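Q: Sequence in, structure out?
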Amino acid sequence: MNDDTISIETDFNAPLEKVWAAWTEPHLLLKWFGSDPNGKGLRATMSVQVGGTYEITFQDSNGTQHTCMGKYLIVEKNKILSFTWEWKNEPGLESLVTITFNPKQRKTSMIFEHRNVGFASAHNYLAGWEATFSKLERMLSDISLQ
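A: Exactly. Output:
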């Protein structure tokens, strides 16, 4: 690993299918995406298939909006999700996210890697993703996907 790669391994107290759905279903993703604990998701368009694209807009509690977008490179249901990442306000600074999902009894182990975040970005990716995954954990404990 080098300085422009963020790696986070975490376990969620939720079944694999629930964690996968949180990453791949727009209505669920909008409930947790974004690092501000009091922020909210605004819009998400996602075509979760190899070559498909996504665009997600979320808002911080102070009203600041952020939009990220990219293209899906690997989609193996309940196993691996990999996609490019670019901020709308930082065009040309493309990075790569790869998430590996592993069942762990009634829990899910998630290995998250964000590569090539670069040094030109104004975003603190490690703090941002850690805060975002805290929101994901809360959302997973609150929802039922039956």
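The mean pLDDT is 91.
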